[in-house]
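Hello,

I think I submitted the adenosine-5'-diphosphate job twice by accident. Can you confirm which output corresponds to this input? Input:
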Amino acid sequence: MASVIQKRLSLHKRAEDHHRENQALQSQLCRIQPLANIGSASCMIAHEINNILTPFGSYADLALKHFDDKALVRKALEKAVLNCQRATKVMESMLALANGDTQKKQTVGLAGLIDEVFTCLCRDFGKDRIQLRIDIPEDLKVHVVAVQIQQVLMNLSLNAREAMLERGGTLSLRAYNDADHTIIEVADTGSGIAPEAMKTIFEAFYSTKDSSESAEECFGTGLGLAFCRLIIDKHQGSITVKSKQGEGTTFKISLPQIPSEIAS
Ligand SMILES: Nc1ncnc2c1ncn2[C@@H]1O[C@H](COP(=O)(O)OP(=O)(O)O)[C@@H](O)[C@H]1O
Ligand SMILES: [Mg+2]
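Support: Only one job matched these inputs. Its output is below.
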């Protein structure tokens, strides 16, 4: 009997020790977490700013080479202003994410938001033999942190473009309301994703793009999709993917519809 009591006491003590250790680890984690956030945020800021700077640089370069073409120089300057404003917004949004702040959501028209993404990309998709099909109802509104959802759509569109660079194709963006969610689909007819990679693509630093090949066209950090998932999770939504090798890929984002107290 005594030994049973002793065993119980010893078990009880061990459980208490574990509990204390657990609490110490948790508070350590709370102290380390902001540092880890800043670490991943700085990589992601670099990635997002790169998305904006690369095409902006190409435009400026073109304008310098054709300096007498007033219209072109003007367009490049307009793009420069627009992209600088966007870079500032992106920085603010990323730093807010790193601090654990959720920025204020706003009710915005999805079509306008997507329009801005393609203006900022400064890419002529036609030159890469990519046809752009955008099918977003003009009256479709979403309740989101606009700049963050724009970053997600920018990342998905750039991935789609890169998957079609070899032989061209079609990039389609469409959106609709389905029950209590708004669905946004970004589909391409590019290379597709190997079945064994489907589970890994959302992991940070997973990339099949060889950075040694070509700095601009094939540069891969493997941060784009990890970032997309982070943002969509923050919006209490989901992001899924369907793909067939050689045929194309469709990313599907599902976001909660505008809460009724805001919609009315
Ligand atoms: N639309 C797509 N078509 C084919 N593969 C894709 C597509 N989107 C993502 N991938 C795959 O997922 C990987 C991870 O994407 P991402 O996180 O954006 O990183 P990165 O673009 O820097 O490689 C890519 O390297 C690619 O292999
Ligand atoms: Mg990418």
